[in-house]
């Protein structure tokens, strides 16, 4: 009883819950699920852009893309480590991912068809990730909040590099501009879906807000992202593929059209263009890495014997 009161006092005061502290089982479970899904998204998110590393159009673009994809691997690692502080087992989390028992962001189930997709992913996908993640720097669980601070710094670099890439392409040839517009058309709606289902259908939102895991609802964050993206699209010289997009002076926000939630649920449930490919690729990479894990474990055991 005292422990529960202490937990609630810490959360209400906007202080952090740390691994040593007592916490309700539901809080722990919600966090493990959210952090694991987040970690899986970072790792699976390496694939769509990773496809372009060997085909980047210049040494400079290749170096940038390599660094960006490596950052995503690092984000996955910080987050798996944060989940471990809650008692989660890393092997178990990986098994859940490769066996399709745990989800990751549905955005990574779409293909990257041209190099412009690399720019649009940086601009819109990393941009949406930033909207989602900046408030998580103040989430109530200490290790998660601290991981997010570092991740957000890198995400803002990702977003800038994507936007700069697109700006360069828009100053290029007609064919390059067409490529950018086509990529924006394909990624805009899936990017809006990254914020999750509408508030009235989001089962966990209320609980997560009460525990201060989440700080804003899905629809609030989605609106923030739309408001941020419209002027950026204008500056870039592209039209976002939504005829209903219009400034609403009364609300002080942009209105936008209806999201195709049937598509969202279809992709989340496994039937997106690349779901099977992404998970199969991850499973193969995990199996190929078995010797590295064995060698690391053998080395650690040897060091322990020597000590
Ligand atoms: Fe990331
Ligand atoms: Fe990123």
Automatic annotation (TrEMBL):
GO biological process, one term: phenylacetate catabolic process
Organism: Actinokineospora iranica
Organism taxonomic ancestry: Bacteria, Bacillati, Actinomycetota, Actinomycetes, Pseudonocardiales
Descriptive protein name: Ring-1,2-phenylacetyl-CoA epoxidase subunit PaaA
NCBIfam families for this protein: PA_CoA_Oxy1
Any one Pfam family match given in the protein's UniProt record, by short name: PaaA_PaaC
PANTHER family per record: 1,2-PHENYLACETYL-COA EPOXIDASE, SUBUNIT A, PHENYLACETIC ACID DEGRADATION PROTEIN PAA
Molecular-function annotations in GO: phenylacetyl-CoA 1,2-epoxidase activity
Residue ranges of coiled coil: none
Cellular component aspect of the GO annotation: cytosol
Tree of life domain: Bacteria
Family annotation (InterPro entries): Aromatic_CoA_ox/epox (IPR052703), Ferritin-like (IPR012347), Ferritin-like_SF (IPR009078), PaaA (IPR011881), PaaA_PaaC (IPR007814)
């Amino acid at each position: 009883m005292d422990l529960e009161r202490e937990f609630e006092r810490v959360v209400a005061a906007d202080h952090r819950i740390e691994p040593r502290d007592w916490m309700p089982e539901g809080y722990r479970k919600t966090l493990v699920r959210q952090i694991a899904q987040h970690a899986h998204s970072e790792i699976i998110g390496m694939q769509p852009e990773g496809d372009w590393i060997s085909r980047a159009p210049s040494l400079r673009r290749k170096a940038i893309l390599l660094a960006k994809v490596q950052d995503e691997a690092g984000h996955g690692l910080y987050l798996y480590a944060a989940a471990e502080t809650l008692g989660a087992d890393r092997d178990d989390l990986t098994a859940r991912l490769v066996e399709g028992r745990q989800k990751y962001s549905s955005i990574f189930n779409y293909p990257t068809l041209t190099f412009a997709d690399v720019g649009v992913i940086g601009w819109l996908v990393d941009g949406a990730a930033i909207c989602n993640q900046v408030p998580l720097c103040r989430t109530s669980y200490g290790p998660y909040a601290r991981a997010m601070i570092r991740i957000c710094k890198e995400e803002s670099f990702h977003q800038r590099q994507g936007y700069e890439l697109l700006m360069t392409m828009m100053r290029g040839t007609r064919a390059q501009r067409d490529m950018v517009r086509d990529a924006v058309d394909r990624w805009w709606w899936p990017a809006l879906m990254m914020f999750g289902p509408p508030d009235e259908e989001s089962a966990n939102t209320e609980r997560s807000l009460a525990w201060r895991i989440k700080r804003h609802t899905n629809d609030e964050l989605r609106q923030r992202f739309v408001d941020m993206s419209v002027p950026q699209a204008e500056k870039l010289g592209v039209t976002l593929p939504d005829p209903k997009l219009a400034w609403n002076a009364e609300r002080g926000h942009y209105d936008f059209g209806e999201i195709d939630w049937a598509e969202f649920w279809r992709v989340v449930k496994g039937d997106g263009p690349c779901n099977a490919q992404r998970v199969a690729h991850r499973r193969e990479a995990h199996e190929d890495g078995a010797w590295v894990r064995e060698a690391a474990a053998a080395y650690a055991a040897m060091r322990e014997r020597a000590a």
